[in-house]
Amino acid sequence: MTRKEQKEERRKAILMTALRLFVERGYHDTKITDIAEAVPMSTGLLFHYFGSKEELLLELVRMGCSGPGTVTAPDEIPPDAYLTGFLRNMFSFAKEQPWVFCMFVLMGQVRRPGMPEEARKLAQSVDAVSPTVKLIKRGQKAGVFHSGDAVTMATCFWCSVQGIMEQMAADERMKMPEPEWIVGMLRS
Amino acid sequence: MTRKEQKEERRKAILMTALRLFVERGYHDTKITDIAEAVPMSTGLLFHYFGSKEELLLELVRMGCSGPGTVTAPDEIPPDAYLTGFLRNMFSFAKEQPWVFCMFVLMGQVRRPGMPEEARKLAQSVDAVSPTVKLIKRGQKAGVFHSGDAVTMATCFWCSVQGIMEQMAADERMKMPEPEWIVGMLRS
DNA sequence: CTTTATATTGAATATAAATTCAATGAATTA
DNA sequence: TAATTCATTGAATTTATATTCAATATAAAG
């Protein structure tokens, strides 16, 4: 069935285009017509695929939720090495698989106030902090991470990453940082 | 002239309210009516004070530009101590002088794509990175900071700060991080 | 080839948000 | 007190954006 495949392709194209634009310019400043133009397709057709702008966002967030959201490291891997590796992957995805990278940034943005409620709640339901808290506590016991409230440390860590990734998404020229630097924020 | 003072008061009230809302929910998702309600005043009156939403933003950015944007540390202060102190101030402003804090966050947001061009250009004209680059190079020579491209390091540093501050602005519950942690990202 | 189903378009409509404006009220001045 | 100026309002207007829809084109099935 070439027809059905075509449709699925188109659907994905819309999702990927919207993802890129949402991350580049923000949800509220991305107009439906911008997405349609960029795909490219007529604005009317876009509504044939997604009932509304909000549903389009929701679908993206659903994809984001099913991804590798949880940061669970097996006990045999040192916490610092795990986080460094995670970031290294993420940063290199920026070029090869912008999809994964953008999704990460989007999920962070959708969690903030002012975003459509349903998408926001959904995004907030996947929680990167809790697993990181465990990881940080393990690191603190092992002496590789400094002392301090692990929840605040985990939150700061991911907010830093979010801030850096948003910049990378907005500015092509920005060079990739060393993951080590960011993990350095936790080291003793 | 009580009349003129009143007007000036009102003007400031509008600016401060808009600043808070822009930072909390983002520029595009803050409606003129939201600002008017929050001040509070009628929407019509708001246009008596500022010609447009964009001009209101521009005025805020102008204020942001005249502030202590440049991070210039005298040579006798160690770079790491200077940055730590700067962040400590900023974070404690979050409660006492939310104005300064919010302004910092706003300037970062306005620099991104999708913001009104005039405000964006103006915000981009104040550049926190260059002074920090010098500071970082000095720190590298002194051996307190690790090696690496100073521009990328400075950019990452401020993006991290931006990410953390945005979270603090959006979520009251978030605890204040230790400035040391963030500077730790630069330490060798 | 004919029929049917579906993709596609672009203009029309609906909705939401920004902006204007005529009218009112309160302070200031003469 | 009367006249004048300016602040203030809320409804009307304009503009921007999301959404719908009738019409057309294209592909699939019989």
Describe the protein.
The structure is a homodimer of 188-residue chains. By secondary structure, chain A is mainly α. Chain A contains 10 helices and no strands. At the A-B interface, helix 9 of A face helix 9 of B. The structure holds a DNA duplex (30 and 30 nucleotides).
Helix/strand layout:
The structure is a homodimer of 188-residue chains.
Chain A: H1 2-25, H2 32-38, H3 43-49, H4 53-66, H5 79-96, H6 98-110, H7 117-125, H8 129-142, H9 150-170, H10 179-183
Chain A binds a DNA duplex (30 and 30 nucleotides) through helix 1 and helix 3.
Brief overview:
2 copies of one chain form a homodimer. With 188 residues, chain A is mostly helical.
What are its keywords?
homodimer; 70% helix; 0% strand; mainly alpha; 10 helices
Q: Which chain pair shows the most residues in contact?
A: A-B, 37 and 37 residues
Class per helix and strand makeup of chain A: mainly alpha
Helix fraction bin of chain A: over 70%
Query: Low-confidence stretches of chain A at least 5 residues in length (pLDDT < 50)?
Result: none
Oligomer: homodimer
Q: How do the SSEs of chain A run, as a string of H and E?
A: HHHHHHHHHH
User: How far do the termini of chain A sit from each other?
Assistant: 58 Å
Biggest β-sheet strands, sense, barrel of chain A: none
Q: How many DSSP E strands of chain A?
A: 0
Q: What fraction of residues of chain A sit in β-strands? A: under 5%
Mean pLDDT of chain A: 95
Shape of chain A: elongated
Question: Count the helices of chain A. How many?
Answer: 10
Radius of gyration of chain A: 18 Å
